[in-house]
Structure formats: structure tokens, C-alpha cells
């Protein structure tokens, strides 16, 4: 009941920025019209201003966005999302932008245990099982990743990529088994993870 429609529109830089001067404002207006009465979610919002204030298309986009935040504040919710430090620069890029947003939420990174739970959940929902040996390897791996966290730490995305790599290695290994059992087909073992590590070292 807060918004007249309540629909959800997700966009990124490519949906807002045009290739020609003057076209970006029109593109942003179309997105705003589509989102009016609902929620507009802009993912990786800092990419709009990624060229350190020299991006005139980005400035054009923010001008239109700031105007919409004021004009439609009673029937439009805008959520901008991204990594903490780049988002600080994003808000600094336009003087009127930060004052248009009244709620800021910083999500904490997942812990090693939570990352492990996410991976186990992904496996279970796709009918895979993790052997006890590979669980030990993964526990050690997640602890190492979390303790030596870098700026580009990808949280859940990192787990999804890891899951896809494990499944690929599992498939390659099982393909070599002449008559695989049901357990072979569904169980990811430490060898699948070790293969993954050796591939990274080779690269």
C-alpha cells in the first residue's frame, strides 16, 4: 500500500547510459516512467560515475535520477547497491544525491561457516553430496579466504563460482569411470577440489 503499483524494476549502467550526448537523459526518463509507482533497483550504481567525474554521460544520468527522486518521492522507491567504498565515491559525485537517500544499509560479509552453508545448500538443491573429506578441505579453504579477505571479495558469488567449478571437475572425473555408481554420480570428493586448486596454480 505504500506505492501505487509495487512492481520491481532492476537496471544497471547499460540500461541508463546511452552512446550519444543528450540520449542518456531520455533513456533515464524511460526507466523512471517504467518504475514509477514501484521500486527501481540500480545494481553496481557506482559504475554510472566510474570515470572519475569526467564521464559526462554519467553526470547526465545522475542529474535526471536526482530530479526523479525529488519529483516522484511519494510514489517511487529507488535502491542503489554496490561495494561500500565505490558507493561512497558515487554519492560524492553529485552534491544533491546523498540527501535524497534517507536509509543506508551496510551488509556484513558472510563468515566462513555461512559460506560453507551456502555451498552445501547449492549442492543439496541440485542433488549433489559433499564427502566428509571435501568438507574438511572446503572448511579450511573458506577460513583462509575470509581471513585474508581482499577488496574484491565476492561473498556469495565466489561460492557460486566455486560450486560450478566443483561440478565441472566432478563431471570430468566421473566421465573416466567405466560404470559409475549412483554414489559416484552425485558425490563431490576431495579430488574434485584438489583438481580445482591445481588448475588455479597452473594459471
Describe the structure in your own words.
- There is one protein chain.
- This protein has 203 residues and is mainly alpha-helical.
- The chain contains nine helices and five strands.
- The radius of gyration is 22 Å and the shape is elongated.
- The relative contact order is 0.09.
- The model has no long low-confidence stretch (mean pLDDT 89).
Mean pLDDT: 89
Q: What percent of residues are in strands?
A: 5-15%
Give the total of beta strands: 5
Number of helical stretches of at least 4 residues: 9
Roughly what percent helix? 40-55%
Computed CA radius of gyration, to the nearest angstrom: 22 Å
Our measurement of the CA-to-CA distance between the termini, rounded to an integer number of angstroms, reads: 53 Å
SSE-based structural type: mainly alpha
Quaternary = single chain
Largest sheet: 3 strands, parallel
H and E order = EHHEHEHHEHHHEH
The rough form would be described as elongated
Strand order in the sheet with the most strands: 1-2-3
Query: Which stretches of 5+ consecutive residues score pLDDT under 50?
Result: none
Question: What topology does this entry show?
Answer:
Elements (H helix, E strand, L loop, with lengths): L7 E4 L1 H4 L6 H13 L3 E4 L13 H16 L5 E4 L3 H9 L19 H14 L3 E2 L1 H16 L8 H20 L6 H5 E2 L1 H13 L1
Parallel strand pairs: 1-2, 2-3, 4-5
Helix pairs in contact: 2-3, 5-6, 5-7, 6-9, 7-9
Amino acid at each position: 500500500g505504500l506505492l501505487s503499483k509495487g512492481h520491481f524494476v532492476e537496471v544497471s549502467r547499460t540500461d541508463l547510459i546511452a552512446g550519444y550526448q543528450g540520449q542518456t537523459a531520455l533513456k533515464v526518463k524511460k526507466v523512471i516512467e517504467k518504475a514509477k509507482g514501484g521500486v527501481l533497483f540500480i545494481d553496481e550504481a557506482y559504475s554510472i560515475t566510474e570515470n572519475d567525474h569526467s564521464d559526462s554521460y554519467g553526470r547526465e544520468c545522475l542529474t535526471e535520477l536526482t530530479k526523479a527522486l525529488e519529483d516522484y518521492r511519494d510514489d517511487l522507491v529507488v535502491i542503489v547497491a554496490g561495494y561500500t567504498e565505490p558507493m561512497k565515491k558515487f554519492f560524492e559525485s553529485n552534491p544533491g544525491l546523498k540527501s535524497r537517500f534517507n536509509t543506508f544499509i551496510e551488509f556484513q560479509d558472510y563468515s566462513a561457516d555461512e559460506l560453507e552453508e551456502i555451498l552445501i545448500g547449492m549442492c543439496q538443491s541440485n542433488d549433489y553430496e559433499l564427502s566428509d573429506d571435501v568438507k574438511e578441505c572446503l572448511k579450511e579453504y573458506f577460513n583462509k579466504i575470509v581471513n585474508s579477505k581482499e577488496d574484491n571479495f565476492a561473498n556469495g558469488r565466489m561460492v557460486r563460482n566455486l560450486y560450478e567449478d566443483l561440478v565441472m571437475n566432478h563431471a570430468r572425473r566421473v566421465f573416466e569411470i567405466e560404470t559409475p555408481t549412483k554414489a559416484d554420480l552425485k558425490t563431490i570428493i576431495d579430488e574434485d577440489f584438489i583438481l580445482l586448486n591445481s588448475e588455479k596454480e597452473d594459471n
